[in-house]
Amino acid sequence: MDLFKDLNYESYLLENPLNLLLGINLENYGDVKEKITRSPYETVSNSEYPNPTELDDLIRLHYLVRSRKVTTILEIGVGKSTAVFSDALSKNKDLYSEYVAENLRRSNPFECHSVDNNEDWINAVKLEYIDLKNVTYHFCKCEVSSINSRICTLFHGMPNICPDLIYLDGPDQFSPEGDVRGLSTKHPDRMPMSGDIITIEHFLTPGTLIVVDGRTANARFIKENLQRNWHYLHFPEYDQHFFELREDPLGVYNRRQIEFCLGEDWEGLSKQV
Question: Which of 189, 188, 198, 130 minimizes the C-alpha distance to 168?
Fold first, then answer.
């Protein structure tokens, strides 16, 4: 799974000026490929919108949506990534909408469904990016729960869609409500532990890609509880985790989508018809 073999950050940014979309002055930003160094508690104590922009992450997300011809995104945790997903899906729609409508079974084509339990963040993103017509926001309550006797958090009111890309970057560890036997994620030395993806795994179609931004403990929790044939990669230099569902197609429409979006040589595709 060589997701970024053809990605040149500078060239890609010239072709897709995300810096203009996000209001970033490149002269003051620095190297677009470099990670931002943060203080130990910055990522667990900063609940104010926006967080510092990590342009390398956002370029990679845009590239994944474009290169994989993604049609439907489930975003868990709103932010600047919401605008990036919207832009990439709009470009895919311009190029592929006719083929998708005539050949694939995609009931939510070129839509991004963004989930968050922080209504202030949702409103801030809506205010900053007022013209994201292909984004649907879902304000959902989030509670501490458990899966297989392991404490985690679960949203209530998730969008009932079939995504081919899931991006996990929420919730934070302090906002989920409740506890299990007095235990929760609400401690600065603990970490977010979302379990929603595990609960919908059996609905996901081969070829689906999951991207977990940071959240290494959460990514390991997901990895240990997924039950299907997922190919997993961790890029420490990106601080991101990737899961790709590699199974034979479920039927003719799933096969057609895989061949169109990922190519006939995709690793999970059996040559048997």
Answer: 198
